[in-house]
Amino acid sequence: MSPEPYFPEFIRALPEPDSPLQGLDARMLQTAQAMAMFFELPAGVHVPEHAHGAQWGVVLEGRLEFTIGGETRVYEKGDTYFVPAGVAHEAVIHPGFVGIDVFADADRYRPKGGPPGPVEAPAA
Q1: DSSP bridge pairs for 66
Q2: Helix (H) or strand (E) holding 92
């Protein structure tokens, strides 16, 4: 029997991101300004070095070795991290990881099988 999902049903009802990460169980919330991703990686994964807009995250469960701008640190439950825009980074995400990432790039990921791009903000 598989363990219960970490996130409640209303979050699990959000769209899944179209991501190349193997074993990723994630949901995304997009606006015109940013994108949040709620994710679980039961088996862990190595995320190769890359760069994009600013990223902030929090570890809810598990452990992450994150190299940001050439400096490697270990993050565990309750820790937060920040990647400035354009800074190269890579990660070793250990099995059982659960976290939330918020990306300044609203279109960092597209929803699987859904319309492209972020939700447009209503006109003022």
Answers
A1: 73, 91
A2: strand 89-93
For 88, the 3-state DSSP assignment is coil
d(CA 2, CA 50): 32
Domain residue ranges of the chain, discontinuous segments joined by +:
22-103
Report in angstroms the alpha-carbon separations of 107 from 32, 66, 117: 8, 23, 6
**CA triple 15-16-20, angle to 5 deg:** 155
Q: Give the list of residues 6+ apart from residue 44 with CB closer than 8 angstroms, or none.
A: 23, 92, 93, 94, 95, 96, 97
Tell me which amino acid residue 65 is.
Answer: E
The pLDDT tens digits for 45-97 are: 999 999 999 999 999 999 999 999 999 999 999 999 999 999 999 999 999 99
What CATH fold (topology level) applies to the domain 22-103?
Jelly Rolls (2.60.120)
Exposed/middle/buried for 13, CB within 10 Å: 0-12, 13-18, 19+? exposed
Identify whether the C-beta of residue 108 lies closer than 8 Å to the C-beta of residue 21.
no
Phi and psi, residue 23, nearest 5°:
80, 5
